[in-house]
Design brief:
This protein is of the alpha/beta class. Helix content is 42%, strand content 15%. Strand 7, helix 9 and strand 8 form a beta-alpha-beta unit. The mean pLDDT is 97. Bound molecules: pyridoxal-5'-phosphate (PLP). The site of pyridoxal-5'-phosphate has 18 residues, from helix 9.
Length: 351
């Protein structure tokens, strides 16, 4: 089997690139769509549930799909440096793609609210990491102002090429299933990804590569649910740091995705998120980060209210890898037990 060449070469007819675009890639995309029947059974869901395991991307999150496009376009435009505000994964991805093409990366992080794995990635790839004494929304506002004033390319999802690249995940799902699923469940933070999936599904259908469109089901964390509430949240709170965003940049397109698809955007509590996070890990061997589990928690809650039809296919997007946030896994799992180096003692502890 030939090597997967990354999303730009695979889907170039659907992306705004030409032969003159230099392709900066880590061969992102091509991630697995896994059936999760044991999870569905444990959760009491009769429908067929799949996960799009985006933690399998080169830097461990879906952000790589947009970053290959944004950085390729920045390279085409002659940029020497890129900058982003980030809850963590965008910075990890920006740092890696900048390293890949010899650019400088500068990342603005909300101080104290970035998971350890993500921070380690931005640092090891040589990005300049600046911790802002404010939340993500404050950092994004500063990022926009800096890029207006300096010759630095902004690679947040307000960069339209990020959204373009992220449409590729919808294409892959249709290719894997042979058509669009009936439901697509996804965590919503800055709301770029839900917008990108909807665009992708529409484009693929328009090109005759799929016959249907999914209902788009977006999930925000309850302490950070501006779209659900209908107004920005000044101090968003949630353990799911990747979706701890109070004023989403792609708010309008997320609402359009919801309404045009006949879908919904709802809130799930941190407890619901963590319980789904543990359930998928224990029943299927799939480790995602807490924010990703919002998609699972969301369909669980919806199914309790009104069960999904048994013949429906639900794809839950698991946006990032569990190793991004090892502290959270250790905090919610059973503790490590210390045992003396003695056979009888050890046997007493087996369960
Ligand atoms: C960025 C991110 C999100 C949120 O995506 P948006 O496009 O901002 O809505 C969700 N989960 C993870 C793991 C992320 O990195």
């Amino acid at each position: 089997m030939p090597t997967w060449p990354g999303i730009i070469r695979t889907y170039r007819e659907f992306l705004p690139v030409t032969d003159a675009t230099p392709i900066v890639t880590l061969q992102e995309g091509g991630t697995r769509l896994l059936p999760v029947p044991q999870f569905a059974q444990a959760a009491g869901i009769a429908a067929r549930v799949f996960v799009k395991y985006e933690g399998l991307n080169p830097t461990g999150s879906f952000k790589d799909r947009g970053m290959t496009m944004a950085v390729s376009k920045a390279a085409k435009a002659g940029a020497r440096a890129i900058l982003c505000a980030s809850t963590g994964n965008t910075s990890a991805s920006a740092a890696a793609y900048a390293a890949r093409c010899g650019m400088k990366a500068i990342v603005l992080l909300p101080k104290g609210n970035v998971a350890l794995g993500k921070l380690s990635q931005a640092l090891i790839h040589g990005a300049q990491v600046l911790a802002i004494d404010g939340n993500f929304d404050v950092a994004l506002d500063l990022a926009r102002q800096i890029c207006d004033r300096h010759a630095i390319a902004l690679v947040n999802s307000v960069n339209p090429f990020r959204i373009e690249g992220q449409t590729s995940a919808a294409f892959e799902i249709c290719d894997a299933l042979g058509d669009a699923p009936e439901f697509l469940a996804i965590p919503v933070g800055n709301a770029g990804n839900i917008s990108a999936y909807w665009l992708g599904f529409q484009r693929y259908r328009a090109a005759g590569r799929a016959t249907g469109l999914p209902r788009m089901l977006g999930f925000q964390a309850a302490g950070s649910a501006p779209i659900v509430l209908g107004h920005p949240v000044a101090e968003p709170q949630t353990i799911a740091t990747a979706i701890r965003i109070g004023n989403p940049a792609s708010w309008k397109t997320a609402i359009a995705a919801r309404d045009e698809s006949g879908g919904a955007i709802e809130a799930v509590t941190d407890d619901e998120i963590l319980s789904a996070y543990k359930l998928i890990a224990r029943t299927e061997g799939i480790f995602c980060e807490p924010a990703s589990a919002a998609s699972l928690a969301g369909i669980l809650a919806m199914n309790r209210r009104k069960p999904f039809p048994a013949d429906a296919r639900i794809v839950c997007v698991l946006t990032g890898h569990g190793l991004k946030d090892p502290d959270r896994a250790i905090a919610v799992a059973d503790p490590v037990v210390s045992v003396p180096a003695d056979l009888a003692e050890l046997e007493r502890h087996l369960r």
